[in-house]
Design the sequence.
């Protein structure tokens, strides 16, 4: 009896302890990766790696600030089970982003089975390897100077509406949620410059385009469940969620954007003779080439390599269009939001900007036509204000790469193929050894004190390129940088020709960068005022 009893207890213990032991081993298994390579870094938590720290209120920026102090410019962390090397050392950055680019063409996303919804997967941001090279070579010319000149008109119309919208608050004497207002502006710009879709979302902030745009990057609780399940049990949940097309973006937002873009693509294909001055027309023309060449050798890499043919499938055209929406909207509106916040708080900055705008455009509102491509490029202080904003508030706070092949980097660290490399841009840009007094908004960092000219990043007297990476760097850097700069300059000129902005509180707004996307922790409210010379005299 006794024997049977103890046997039963023993079997029960085994039945409980063995699975628990296996689970424990599974949870701990990857966490000797960095110590074996002699790379320092914070201790991981079973199953979660170092994710707990990254999801605390200050987001990854706060975590990396702490870790950088402890472990220096290169250290190892765990993104759940996956090792990631964090790099801020300029010499190693040069190697990864430029010198050895051919071994670091892809982002971490492209390879880690991460959950990018199928509609966006072919988009430039998420594509990898030869596909990326082909798509990039088609998409890049879309953002050339001459193309941008052609779409300036679209941006100007949106900027006029932006000012009219802000004037309503000025006349009412109320405060505006500046993030909401810029998100509507930025969506309008990308919809019209990208796809010739005209919406007046600025009048109606609840317009579906704005609502879906804002919802795309809004933090939602279900994301935590997705990250946890995929991070801890990737082999089970990645295929499962993929088969259900559950990903980083909400299904209903993806469906909405795919539908909008898909309809424009269909319409353009039905009416090929109509010409359009927007980004989509270039992408569609590339697609037409594919139809023409459909009986030819279909190995795109080969043919592209010989310079014969470029092609985008219909799915890829929609993928690029979606990426333009995602990459172009959130980033630009967040930068405008933080920029106006700092301009409002720093009266001397606002004064100098107003002076530059007045000197460039004169005092009459009738001079509207002077806001042309050339004048927009010739305002050093405005350039400095934008750069200083991007330094303090890069909307994407981190970029990533993976090596295609095993490689060794500084200090003999051996990186296996596909190991994640994380570059925390915001930490580099707020590091006091790179930018003294880094939490002070000071555009003169980018101005030559003698000539009062803009100090170009990377120039002899300018900031080092590896200390300033808001658009990334190298062949994979942001393809839309010039469009974003143009859009922000036009918006600033239009706003400050007519209005000034006041803060509603002297408190600093907190920021957080959970999932690498910078957000203010609460809405930024600013009070627009009409500049005295535009006041209607009684
Ligand atoms: C202030 C505005 C913007 C900022 C700060 C920004 C920042 C970035 C960053 C950091 C990257 C990653 C670069 C890297 O990994 O080295 C990126 C990539 C990209 N951005 Fe932007 N971006 C902005 C505006 C735009 C706009 C307006 C568009 C297009 C309409 C755009 C389209 C893209 C695309 C397609 C990529 C992927 C490029 C590739 O993988 O080849 N971005 N952007």
Sequence:
């Amino acid at each position: 009896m006794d024997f049977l009893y103890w046997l039963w207890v023993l079997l029960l213990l085994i039945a409980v302890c063995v699975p628990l032991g296996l689970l424990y081993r599974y949870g701990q298994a990857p966490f000797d990766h960095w110590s074996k390579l002699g790379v320092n870094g914070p201790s991981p938590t079973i199953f979660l790696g170092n994710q707990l720290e990254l999801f605390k209120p200050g987001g990854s920026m706060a975590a990396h600030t702490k870790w950088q102090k402890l472990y220096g410019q290169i250290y190892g962390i765990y993104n759940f089970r996956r090792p990631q090397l964090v790099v801020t050392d300029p010499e190693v950055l040069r190697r990864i982003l430029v010198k050895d680019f051919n071994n670091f063409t892809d982002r971490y996303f492209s390879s880690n089975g991460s959950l990018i919804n199928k509609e966006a997967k072919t988009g430039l941001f998420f594509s990898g390897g030869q596909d990326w090279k082909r798509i990039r070579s088609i998409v890049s010319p879309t953002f050339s100077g001459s193309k941008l000149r052609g779409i300036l008109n679209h941006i100007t119309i949106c900027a006029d509406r932006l000012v009219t919208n802000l004037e309503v608050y000025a006349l009412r004497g109320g405060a505006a949620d500046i993030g909401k207002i810029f998100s509507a502006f930025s969506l309008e710009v990308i919809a019209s410059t990208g796809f010739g879709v005209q919406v007046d979302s600025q009048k109606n902030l609840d317009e579906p385009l704005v609502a879906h745009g804002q919802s795309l990057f809004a933090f939602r609780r279900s994301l935590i469940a997705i990250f946890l399940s995929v991070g801890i049990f990737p082999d089970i949940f990645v295929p499962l969620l993929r088969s259900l097309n559950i990903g980083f973006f909400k299904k209903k937002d993806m469906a909405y954007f795919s539908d909008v873009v898909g309809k424009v693509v269909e319409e353009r294909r039905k009416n090929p003779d109509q010409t359009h001055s927007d980004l989509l027309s270039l992408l569609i023309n590339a697609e037409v080439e594919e139809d023409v060449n459909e009986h030819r050798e279909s190995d795109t890499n080969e043919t592209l390599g010989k310079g014969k043919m470029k092609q985008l499938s219909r799915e890829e055209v929609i993928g690029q269009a979606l990426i333009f929406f995602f990459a172009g909207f959130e980033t630009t509106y967040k930068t405008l939001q933080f920029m106006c916040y700092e301009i409002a708080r720093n009266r001397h900055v606002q004064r100098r900007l107003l002076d530059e705008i007045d000197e460039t455009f004169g005092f009459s509102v009738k001079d509207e036509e002077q806001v042309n491509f050339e004048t927009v490029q010739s305002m050093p202080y405005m350039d400095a204000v934008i750069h200083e904003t991007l330094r303090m508030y890069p909307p994407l706070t981190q970029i990533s790469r993976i090596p295609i092949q095993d490689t060794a980097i500084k200090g003999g660290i051996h990186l296996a193929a596909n190991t994640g490399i994380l570059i925390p841009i915001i930490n580099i840009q707020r590091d006091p050894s790179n930018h003294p007094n880094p939490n002070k908004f000071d555009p003169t960092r980018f101005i030559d004190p003698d000539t009062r000219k803009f100090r170009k990043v990377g120039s002899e007297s300018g900031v080092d390129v590896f200390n300033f990476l808001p658009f990334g760097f190298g062949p994979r850097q942001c393809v839309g940088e010039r469009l974003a700069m143009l859009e922000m300059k036009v918006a600033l000129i239009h706003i400050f020709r007519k209005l000034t902005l006041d803060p509603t509180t002297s408190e600093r707004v907190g920021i957080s960068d959970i999932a690498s996307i910078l957000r203010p922790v609460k809405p930024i409210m600013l009070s627009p005022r009409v500049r005295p010379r535009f006041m209607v005299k009684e």
User: Anything to note?
Assistant: Confidence is low (pLDDT under 50) at residues 288-309. The first helix runs from residue 2 to 28.
